[in-house]
Design brief:
Length: 436
């Protein structure tokens, strides 16, 4: 058996969807373990583009089992919109199971996300406004509703009571209208029947798969720097995208994970607010944004762009126990005459090599760069390592040297086929930590 965890090594949108879809070929099951439809994962296969928000990126293979784990928050309306869109496109989708312990994201969570963001004013996080933070807050406060509860008698009264409680917050704290409890219940009813066949104890499915030596691919959403604990708090999401979340959010033990691979762009982007030491301004940012089509998959917001930050990547390697790196969007840098790698920060007259917890300090950090010559060649048609220009190979080698983590795969375009495997280690249970 082999459990492979794919985590975002940056602030999300690293290309996890593409990588998951590519590696799903070798997997029997694909599992999402945290987040909700704040995620937007893009898969391009056979010339068609698919955008996934809640459903695992293994869905395009009819023979794979896809799991929405207990660690996720599920907006039923979005779930069925997504599923129906696949069905309408004639995609023969995988078998999907949803944990009966996953939490529901209901309309009042969406409105709360909005009013909370508005009230933060200048300090707003820049959330996706999909209700994620409020849904997880309810889970932690033990006021949430689990998907499985919808199949039991009395759920209507519980939902109505939750709505009335939230209405007090809307009306008294924020001065905005609340919801009609009966209406929220009525609107939920059609989804209850549709959800029922998908709901199960998904941890049992995973345990069975592990016992049968099946390959499980855990698809992280968001990224390490958006992790509630390890990210740039408070400019983070409300879940655990890092590798530990894979166990917690799916109901398997740590021994089920044989390898953690981090996905990183060849540069860096961020949507939403918060410090970003290697951020580029003006035309340099615009060039990468246009070439990399750096506009949010979920919200359409332009992404902030900058140079690859190896202080951050080393930190991500550490907190995830990363065994290998997957570098995506190499092709986006094809025309640049010079490429920079941030190897350290400078602040308060000191050189900083470990990613700081303090955002105050992070805001003061000036990047220390290593400059590399660009390759100025099209890499999008490369399919083997030797097809890559020497300068591109040098760039990848420097990333491995400076992080101590080997680069095992490179992506040179959005399509499934635009992938180069440098070390085929993905589902080999013996190799937990690879050598750079
Ligand atoms: P995710 O959230 O990590 O799955 O990433 P997104 O799908 O939000 O954003 C990545 C974007 O880059 C998508 O539009 C992908 O189709 C695209 N993409 C992925 N890998 C590559 C690559 O190697 N090169 C280029 N040019 N685009 C890529
Ligand atoms: P994928 O899985 C990029 C960001 C938001 C905001 C912060 C909190 O596609 O990589 P939230 O709505 O989660 O409360 O927002 O997190 N964010 C993402 N940024 N990719 C994502 O997902 C993101 N999901 C949330 O922009 O800064
Ligand atoms: Mg995304």
């Amino acid at each position: 058996m082999s459990g492979l965890v794919i985590v975002g090594a940056q602030w999300g949108d690293e290309g996890k969807g593409k990588v998951t879809d590519y590696l799903a070929r070798q997997a029997h099951l694909v599992v999402r373990y945290q987040g909700g439809n704040n995620a937007g994962h893009t898969v391009v296969a056979g010339g068609r583009e698919f955008r996934l928000h809640l459903i695992p990126s293994g869905i395009l293979y009819p023979d794979k089992i896809c799991v929405i784990g207990n660690g996720m928050v599920v907006d039923p309306e979005v779930l069925f919109e997504e599923l129906d869109a696949f069905i309408a496109q004639g995609v023969e989708t995988a078998r999907l199971y949803i944990s009966d312990r996953a939490h529901l994201l209901l309309p009042y969570h969406l409105r709360l996300d909005e009013v909370e963001e508005e009230s933060r004013g200048e300090e707003r996080i820049g959330t996706t406004r999909r209700g994620i933070g409020p849904a997880y807050a309810d889970k932690v406060a033990r006021s949430g509703l689990r998907t499985g509860e919808l199949t039991e008698p009395g759920w209507e009264a519980r939902v109505a009571r939750m709505v009335r409680e939230k209405n007090r917050i809307f009306e008294r704290l924020y001065g905005v209208p609340g919801f009609q409890p009966e209406q929220v219940v009525e609107d939920l009813k059609p989804y209850v029947e549709r959800l029922r066949p998908y709901l199960t104890d998904t941890s049992l499915i995973l345990a069975g798969a592990l016992a049968q030596e099946k390959n499980i691919l855990f698809e992280g959403a968001q990224g390490t720097m958006l992790d509630l604990d390890h990210g740039t708090y408070p400019f983070v999401t409300s879940s655990t995208p890092t590798a530990g979340g894979a166990c917690h959010g799916s109901g398997v033990g740590p021994a089920a994970v044989s390898l953690v691979l981090g996905v990183s762009k060849a540069y860096l982007t961020r949507v939403g607010a918060g410090p970003f030491p290697t951020e580029l301004e003006g035309s340099q940012c615009e060039e990468i944004r246009q070439k990399g089509r750096e506009f949010g998959t979920t919200t359409g917001r332009p992404r902030r762009c900058g140079w690859l930050d190896l202080v951050m990547l080393r930190y991500a390697a550490r907190v995830n126990g990363m065994g290998g790196l997957i570098i995506t969007k190499l092709d986006v840098l094809d025309s640049l005459p010079e490429i920079r790698l941030c190897t350290a920060y400078r602040a308060k007259g000191k050189v900083i090599t470990e990613f700081p917890a303090s955002l105050r300090l992070l805001r003061e950090c000036e990047p220390v760069y290593e400059e590399l010559e660009g390759w100025r060649e099209d890499t999008s048609r490369a399919r083997r390592e030797r097809d890559l220009p020497p300068a591109a190979r040098r760039f990848l080698q420097r990333i491995a040297e400076l992080t101590g983590i080997p680069v095992v795969m490179v992506s040179v375009g959005p399509d499934r086929e635009q992938s180069i495997v440098l070390q085929d280690v993905f589902f080999s249970p013996q190799k937990k930590v690879l050598q750079a």
